[in-house]
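[audit] Reproducing an earlier prediction to check determinism. Same input, same settings, fresh worker. If the tokens differ from the archived copy the diff job will pick it up downstream; this log only records the rerun itself.
[audit] input (317 residues):
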Amino acid sequence: MNPRERAARLADDLLFPAALEVDRADRVPASHFEALAREGLYDFDGDLAIVETLASGCLATTFVWLQHHGPLASARGWPLLDAAMARGDIRGGIARAGARPGARSLTATSTVDGYILEGTVPWVTGWGMINIIEVAALNGDDVVFLFVDATESPSIKVELNRLVAVNASRTVTLTFTGHRVPHDRLVRRQLFQAWQAAEAPGSKLNGGLALGVASRCIRLLEDTSDLRSELDACREALQSADSATIPDARAAASELAMRAAITLTVQTGSRSVLLDNHAQRLVREAAFLLVFGTRQKIKEAVLWRVGRGQPSACPNG
């Protein structure tokens, strides 16, 4: 089987049947990540269809798994780490939200033997289920990216965030106080303005999470012809998107996921408010995806789609 087929089998046979249980759990079971590793899905080539397929099975699992691929790309110049991460033996996460100017920003002060991290990162996903995090921190006019062990210590304080959905992702706030990182953990450095410009459109792959929620809702609905056509249009828009069109494509996918989940809830009726019903889970997950990884342009595009009262499944639709 090819990777898409393996992902589909995993989503339908393991992830979706366990999704409600994971939704109520305090962490994604290790067996899910082990299954992803066995299927070779940690060595990921950026296929949007695989993100959509896995997210249609279990968003929490996919949410943690997807974060791994930022550090994996950065590890390409580190042969031993690269190989271990591609196998899923070492699992990574990202800590980039602290590299923003402000009172609680994360800074990296240069020293003779490395860097000292001070400050806060509000969103780090997978804590207790990952081994390494790629941390972005301000260093003068630059952003430095460092590999840091995902381990609580006297210089790394961990606060668990309680989320309305994907709570099993164990997303935390990290506070660094005089945390030392040696020079050999430096991944790269980049001008802050250049990094900020590159980050502005948001990630195309994150849109695959919304496609996954929408596609699962559509599979659970009775009459799906119109929504399925919209899903196909959203998928095509995301696959072909560039930096200029990613925000609108992301907004369209998020709006469709929310609308599909609401449709499923109404069609399901009163049973949809029971905690053992997928409709309530999917509504909460769709709401979560309205704000996850949202940059200003995406936010504006979502608000335009919601506010005009005339939803469209794809840009220019």
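[audit] rerun output stored. Observation attached for the diff report: The CA atoms of residues 67 and 93 lie 5 Å apart.
[audit] end
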